[in-house]
Amino acid sequence: MLYFKFASADVKLANETHSHQGFKFYTFSNLILMNKRHDKSGLCFERAFFILSSPDDRFIKSFAEGLLQQPEFYLDGPKGKANLGIERIEILKDFSFEDECWFKTLSPIYVKTIRKENESLREIDLYPTEPKFYENLHKNLIERFSEFYGKAPADYFDVIETADIKPKRIKIAESYRRCNLMSLKIQASSELLKFAYEAGLGEKNAMGFGCVDVVNSSQQMKNLTADERR
């Protein structure tokens, strides 16, 4: 759905983005449902929203234009299609990043590695309990920043605290990937934190993984956690 809305406004840019063999520099959140409830017919809700993020202003502009030109879309579910329409699009306020930030995931972070097992190489999904998770998270962020801007960032990055880790298992094509919703406090250069916010954390961002929001302080972090428990 995202790609076709994008292409309706700028088909050349959509094709360039879709066919690009390197990283794709956008991410989007899970669909966030307001006043949701379950009944026999399925999942009901009054309204929903999602967040799309990218460091590429041209991408954001084209996507928004595509949605405004064709505001109707549908979601496939186990019991059929749900027809939806876009009511409005909002541009969120920019954050001014320093050298430390709490992020909360709006879609799960996916990180993998390659390991040798029985004389063959296998992709292994990583969890936040493993140091390799944070090593690869850092490496991936540096590589994507360097490709997008054509230069290396000020490379300082350390995840100093995590909270509310919720493992998820999500089907992509014919296989399942293990990923995690979580909150994490990162110390890093301001340019890296800004890029993480705009382009996402981890891998498969263009498939809706690693979208994050900013939690401004430790007190807000406690309030956020309490709200989630309710």
Explain what the structure shows.
The chain is of the alpha+beta class and 230 residues long. The chain folds into two domains: 84 residues, Alpha-Beta Plaits; 130 residues, Alpha-Beta Plaits (2-Layer Sandwich). 31% of the residues lie in helices and 35% in strands. It contains six helices and 14 strands. The strands form six sheets. It has a four-stranded antiparallel β-sheet. A hairpin with a 2-residue loop joins strand 3 and strand 4. Helix 1 packs across helix 3. The longest helix has 19 residues. The C terminus is likely disordered.
Summarize the SSE layout with pairings:
Blueprint: H1 2-9, H2 11-19, E1 27-28, E2 32-34, E3 37-39, E4 42-44, E5 47-49, E6 52-53, H3 57-69, E7 72-77, E8 80-85, E9 100-105, E10 112-117, E11 120-125, H4 131-149, E12 157-172, E13 175-188, H5 190-199, E14 212-215, H6 218-229
Antiparallel strand pairs: 1-6, 2-5, 3-4, 7-8, 9-13, 9-14, 10-11, 12-13
Helix pairs in contact: 1-2, 1-3
Protein name: CRISPR-associated endoribonuclease
Domain CRISPR associated protein Cas6 C-terminal: 97-214
Pfam family, one: Cas_Cas6_C
